[in-house]
Design goal:
The protein has 80 residues and is an alpha+beta fold. The chain folds into two domains: 42 residues, no CATH class; 37 residues. Helix content is 64%, strand content 15%. The longest helix is centred in the last third of the chain and has 36 residues. The structure holds zinc ion. The site of zinc ion (ZN) has 6 residues, from helix 1 and helix 2.
Length: 80
């Protein structure tokens, strides 16, 4: 497998880091290059904050989807 830096991919930079077992598998997986690891470690507080924000957004979204699914199911059942 090819290991690519997810952040370099986002920035459109050369992202290839290393090969990883199984070597015959041509698919890609994501890691972090030294540059981005350093800059992320430096701004770790910001990362934690945005991670909390992200998780709370995911929670909102999954809650909204659950409500939507319930509403759709109710509408579908009332048609039958
Ligand atoms: Zn990178």
């Amino acid at each position: 497998m090819k290991v690519l830096c997810a952040w370099c991919v986002r920035d459109g930079r050369p992202a290839f880091l290393r090969e990883k077992w199984p070597f015959e598998d041509p698919s890609e997986t994501h890691g972090l290059c030294a540059d981005h690891f350093t800059s992320l470690s430096a701004s770790v507080n910001q990362v934690v904050t945005s991670r909390v924000w992200f998780l709370s957004r995911v929670h909102d979204l999954s809650w909204g989807l659950t409500r939507w699914a319930q509403r759709m199911r109710g509408r579908f059942l009332s048609l039958c």
